[in-house]
Amino acid sequence: MSGTSVSVIVPVFNDQENLENVLSDLRNQTYRDFLVYFIDDGSTDKSASLIKRATLRDKRFFLFSLKENSGQAKARKYGLNKVVTPFVTFLDADDRVNSQWLEKMVEPLFRGTDISVIGYDMVITGLNPKVRNGPIDRSEVLHGHDQIMTEWLLDKQLQGFLWNKMFRTEILRKSTNEFTFNWLEDVAWINSIISHVECVTINNSIQYHYVQASGSSMHRRLNANDRQSYLVLSRQFKQFSLKGSGKIKDLVDFRLVETGLMFFAQISFRDVFRVKKEKEVFLGAVRSLIEKPKSLHRFSAVTIIFLKIIATTNLVVSMTRLRLRLLRIRDAIRY
């Protein structure tokens, strides 16, 4: 379709329950100049047939089917290879978007930005449904390597999700990320392109609704494929230290620790001896931060206590899992 500006990549795996919502959200976009690539990742339900029917009604919709389930990372890369438009974004098939989702993101790209970021909230379903606003608290424009890298490493305004961002396709294709793990794969992807980015526009208007089932896979145990993620991410983060200021180097340690707290909390006790190298990297970053007390202020008081215990005892998996359990209890009381 000549002249079309935006492609939306939607990986699908057994998402028939929400697909009608997704299709409706896409049809209702105020910005109309887009294509949608649905990548069916080996679904065994009616997802493919629902999408196929939708492609007959809307010529902007396309269905591509993978022979077997390969994971979201591979499905997204497959979709990116199909893109012919200058801009691209992503939508998860179990989420929802407002009608101005594309319009709000594409406008800054027409003005020359490289990545456009939009606000989001988290919708927790289940017996006690809740909605929590995401951390993007202000609209701003980031220019230059140090400012963009600072916000990326702080993991607040510029978080590691693909679905609340629109990219220049040429920049996203510069990715050197060939890994296929599905834990924080978005972070690995953005890590591999962020050095090519000169301008990021952030709009705190909430247009994306990230739907998470209560007790979902966000806290599942990591499999062998996903356990490779922490070392890959740590190598990527450490590359930023080589080119950045002293502040960037401190933020790299912060991000290594923040990521490690999530990673080790999802490691099963039977896999403790399979993550020795990861543990060494994590402990090194923890001790580096503790030696610079001013760098610890980005963590909560409870997390600082846990980090000091971890640095002293080396009990990485048990302490990170205990910390996560306490945070869940806190959140259940607070929300």
Automatic annotation (TrEMBL):
Domain Glycosyltransferase 2-like: 7-153
Keyword check for Magnesium: no
Enzyme class: transferase
A GO molecular function held by the record: glycosyltransferase activity
Keywords, in A-Z order: Glycosyltransferase, Membrane, Transferase, Transmembrane, Transmembrane helix
InterPro entries: Glyco_trans_2-like, Glycosyltransf_2, Nucleotide-diphossugar_trans
Enzyme Commission identifier(s): 2.4.-.-
Entry keyword annotation includes Transcription regulation: no
TM segment ranges: 299-320
Name the UniProt record assigns to this protein: Glycosyltransferase, group 2 family protein
